Amino acid sequence: MTTAESSKNELFDAIVAYNKDRVVAAVEKARNVLKPQEIIDALALGMNEVGVRFERGRLFLPHVMVAAEAMTAGVKLIEGDLPKGGGKEGTAVIVTGTVEGDVHDIGKSIVSTMLQCSGYKVFDLGRDVPIRNFIETVKAENGRMIGMSALMTTTMQAQRECIEMLVEEGLRNNVKVMVGGAPATQAWADKIGADGYGENASEAVSKANALLGVK
Ligand code: B12
User: What is the pTM of this model?
Assistant: First the structure.
């Protein structure tokens, strides 16, 4: 097995074992062999497995919480290593956040970081964000795009409501909307009239570039 593969396995196993020290050690080690994005992808795969085990009743909420903390710590370690876009995209503003009622923010934060590294000015509103806050921030900061994350089938409805509010406020033509989070799909994005959907953080960046006309 190559060192890269064994590094990825170590990252995955450490998250699934919900062991923060092991995650931190695995990330430090992996930095010599893997690209930052590969490290994030391996950790995210581990988080997905945690989700599967939680669903099957093999892990419980406290385990998921510790695994989530470990993932956040791991990503924080390598944030500075992510390639920078050089700011050639200028200062296009993107407002991001996890919708109201939803506290899942790991994926959203990765997306925000990657957008930032690609040269965008990102206003990350955090988690459990009321729709009104997205709208007010986009107005106040002259935002060109809203990127909403939702991890639950119940909360993803807020993505639709935000688009409806943009229409009501007469802002829809000036503001692109990108949606994401595990239950979101391209079909969902089409259904609610979003401009784009990204399955992961790299796709979020390429979709944002395409929608905002950035080469
Ligand atoms: C970690 C986790 C938690 C942590 C969250 C910690 C945190 N700070 O985020 C804690 C323990 C707090 C938690 C709580 C709960 N959780 Co939870 N959780 C998860 C878990 C296991 C992993 C999520 C995750 O972080 N994945 C890793 C990241 C990297 O992936 P990601 O979020 O999908 O993000 C990527 C893409 O989706 C995309 N992306 C994300 N956002 C965006 C945005 C844009 C604009 C774009 C373009 C792309 C994009 O890019 C990201 C990077 O690649 C999922 C299982 C799963 N498979 O998703 C369940 C899951 C989402 N949780 C679930 C549930 C039910 C809950 C609780 C209700 C449990 C409870 N009984 O209390 C609460 C909800 C509380 C609330 N009100 O929000 C369910 C939801 C089911 C449903 N009906 O939809 C899931 C699916 C688990 C399950 N299978 O049952 N949870």
Answer: 0.92
pLDDT, one tens digit per residue, over 193-212 is: 999 999 999 899 999 999 99
In this structure, the answer to whether residues 76 and 97 fall within a common structural domain is no
Assess contact for 39 and 11: CB atoms under 8 A: yes
Q: Are residues 17 and 104 in the same domain?
A: no
CATH code, 162: 3.40.50.280
Distance CA 99, CA 129 (A): 5
Pocket of ligand 1 contains residue 37 by CB under 6 Å? no
How far out from the chain centre does Cα 27 lie?
Answer: 19
pLDDT in tens, 23-78: 999 999 999 999 998 999 999 999 999 999 999 999 999 999 999 999 999 999 99
User: Which residue CA neighbors atom 44 of ligand 1 most closely?
Assistant: 180
Give the range of the structural domain holding residue 13, as residue numbers without chain letter: 3-81
Verify whether ligand 1 is closer than 6 Å to residue 156 (CB atom).
no
Element (H, E) at 94: strand 93-98
Residue 119 covered by a domain: yes
Whichever domain contains 14, its CATH number is: 1.10.1240.10
CA 1 to ligand 1 centroid distance, Å: 31
Q: Whose CA is nearest to atom 53 of ligand 1?
A: 200
